[in-house]
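The protein record quoted in full:
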Amino acid sequence: MAKKKHAESEPLDQADAEGVVDIDEQAEVFPGAQPIAYFGTDFDVHGLVRRINSGDIIIPSFDPQVETGSDLVGFQRRFVWRKFQMDRFVESLLLGYPVPGIFLVQQADKKLLVLDGQQRLRTLQAFYRGTIGKDSVFKLESVDEAFKDAMYTDLDDEDRRTLDNTFIHATIVKYDAEKEGDQAVYQVFERLNTGGTNLYPHEIRVALYNGKLVRLIRDMNQNSNWRDLYGNPSDRLKDQELILRFVALYYAAEKYKRPLKGFLNSFVKDHRDLEGIDAKAVATTFQNTCALILQTLGRSAFRLKNQLNAALVDSVLYGIAKRLDRGKIQQRSEVKSAFASLVHDEDFIGAIARATADEERVATRLGKAKLAFSKLR
């Protein structure tokens, strides 16, 4: 088969919202997408709140270390609606206006996990409870005078019945982990998440594949040397995703196939609870690698210009980690010269500048990084 040629007209990788130069993972396409089973139903608002309070509908919190009482946890981002948005949503229901539906995942125990609709459901739960958070009283403010300062308990009987009996449509996805359900649910969530503040691929991944590996990476992300190299912690978990990329390539570079997000999803799924991974060893390797890079190349090691380059990060981490597997580097002064020769290699630069998720370019940059640092004594 003829070797694939890359046109120089291919767009360069672009900086994301946090200034990290990388491919646009959200635009990558999964090959052979599979259909997923789902059905629709309607819930009255009072019934939705009752089910949330009883635990039959679970609204997970977004965090790598959230509760572990469900098959899928941590999908949702932190609650982000402002008070006026909460008020307007309740008012829309009181006025009989149409509102968007919600998406739920039916788990093996028949409990329903919220895939999309967290803001709306948490708003309803808070309004019926009468408080926002622990202390703030929930009174309607940014609404028509007819509902101004009203709590749920202040509503007259007609308005209360209107709210209680309003139906919200729910699409319920049947989750089946044994039939590649994880990847299918990932794609459903990704496709739902097309407006507003989009979730990044790793934010979805943390939720879908929550386990010991995700928590190990969260802990590795606190390493002081890594923090000096990366910068401030990422609100969108980009720093944790780059650590996952290092771990996945360190263990399974030869299995890499695009799309990158699919490769990372499969790796986390296969090693969710550290199957085949020595947690202490990989954490120590990462720590030693970051320490060496910081000491020899400085804080700007992952920045060819001003922005951090994700492909440069995984290449340098991979190359130096593989060299350290053979033992300590005695001639540390040689690290800088090896790095300099690497970043002056046109093929390497091409492999970290454009189409960096392509199999050939991943193999090129990892191979060149490994070779450059393998010569260090």
